Amino acid sequence: MSTGEILVTGGTGFIGSHCCVSLMKQGYRVVVVDNLSNSDAGVIDRIASITGSRPAFYIADVRNADEMDRVLRRHDISAAIHFAGLKAVGESVAVPLRYFDNNVGGTIALCQVLNTHGIKRLIFSSSATVYGAPDRVPVAEDAPLRPASPYGHSKAMVEQILADLSHADPEWRIGILRYFNPAGAHESGLIGESPRGTPNNLVPFLAQVAAGQRDALNIFGNDYPTPDGTGIRDYIHVMDLAEGHCAALEALLQGQPGFTVNLGSGRGHSVLDVVRAFEAACGHAIPCHHAPRRAGDVAEYYADPSRAMTLLGWESRRDLESICRDAWHSQCRQSNGASQR
Ligand SMILES: NC(=O)c1ccc[n+]([C@@H]2O[C@H](COP(=O)([O-])OP(=O)(O)OC[C@H]3O[C@@H](n4cnc5c(N)ncnc54)[C@H](O)[C@@H]3O)[C@@H](O)[C@H]2O)c1
Fold first, then answer.
1. Is residue 261 classed as helix, strand or coil in its secondary structure?
2. Which of 83, 103, 236, 340 could cross-link with 154 by S-S, CB 3.0 to 4.6 Å?
3. Among all residues, which ones are annotated catalytic?
């Protein structure tokens, strides 16, 4: 708990909205900036329903220095959490310039305007995708970075830029958080993941199949060297992730130097594990087809989360069952028109 307001860019998006809830529950005052390119303004109402108070909200693009300057003049911001960005790996291959402009250009523009206002505490949403195909699991933060897509490169570039910035000006304290596979929703079901178009991630895809909005799940690869042949990933409940941001923020505000930390559960689950857990959550079988492996997918991938515990005192608390239960609840509320979009 601290004084000052917290700027949350991308705060109406999936992870940002859950982080706003956690921050506000801890007593922080939150200022959201989002250009609504992948979210909708109604999320602010739903955050207010959950928390009992309303964050300040501006529709603005982080690349627009004038708009950002106007927001920062109106508030007493002590730190920023920067979620705003594009996140679809496949799309980034098709339109790389858009990704570099938004993710890299957006972060540079944000840092410049923060700098002008003397705000030098920043948390950045990075991704485990910066590791590419890891040599070993669990993946620790000192593993080599080998991003395999423009999206992954955009995250690794920003990490480098932020390292150079804090090297040049030690007043900057920057927390880089590398997320594994965020999924699930707030237990109220009022906010959640509501992708536009075809979901890129397993859990929202399963939710749409379970709800009858899609015919079946394609399982890409059943001949990996894993116990059931399907790929293994580290799914982290979005509320655990949100709480990880609060712990990171608290550390920065208390004067801890910058850090790079994995946010994952440290546990791997196969695609079939997730399908079974989702079937238990929704109460019926989910149609699945086997499809060939996708280029670039690796067999097994999960975090070594120990640095987050050592530096931030944080670890994930919610399990795969909670992820599927909360994702299904949110899907049901969305289908009833009560959640995002
Ligand atoms: N969801 C994941 O699986 C995942 C995994 C690793 C890292 N991340 C990163 O976490 C961050 C948040 O991801 P998310 O899943 O909540 O995505 P999201 O698309 O739901 O949220 C991002 C938000 O940022 C906004 N936005 C995008 N560009 C903007 C800009 N230039 N100015 C202002 N607002 C802008 C969008 O409208 C959206 O509301 C992203 O940076 C993403 O790369 C996500």
1. strand
2. 103
3. 151
Which percentage of the chain shows pLDDT scores above 70? 98
Residue 296's pLDDT is 83
Domain count, the chain: 1
121-127 vs 77-82, strand pairing mode:
parallel
Query: Which ligand 1 atom is nearest residue 62's CA?
Result: 32
Task: Give 190-246 pLDDT, tens digit per residue.
Answer: 999 988 889 999 999 999 999 999 999 999 999 999 999 999 999 999 999 999 999
The verdict on residue 66 lying in a domain is: yes
Q: Tell me, what CATH number does 21's domain have?
A: 3.40.50.720
Ligand 1 pocket, mutate which of 34, 47, 95, 123 (most atoms under 8 A from CB): 34
Closest to 193 measured CA to CA, from 114, 27, 202: 202
Helix (H) / strand (E) containing 271: helix 271-282
Kindly give the number of the ligand 1 atom that is closest to the alpha carbon of 155. Answer: 43
**293 assigned to some structural domain:** no
51 within a domain of the structure (yes/no): yes
> What is the tally of helices (H) and strands (E) in the chain?
12, 13
Question: In ligand 1, which atom is closest to the CA atom of 106?
Answer: 31
Centre of ligand 1 to C-alpha 229, Å, is 31
Pick the residue whose CA is nearest to atom 39 on ligand 1.
13
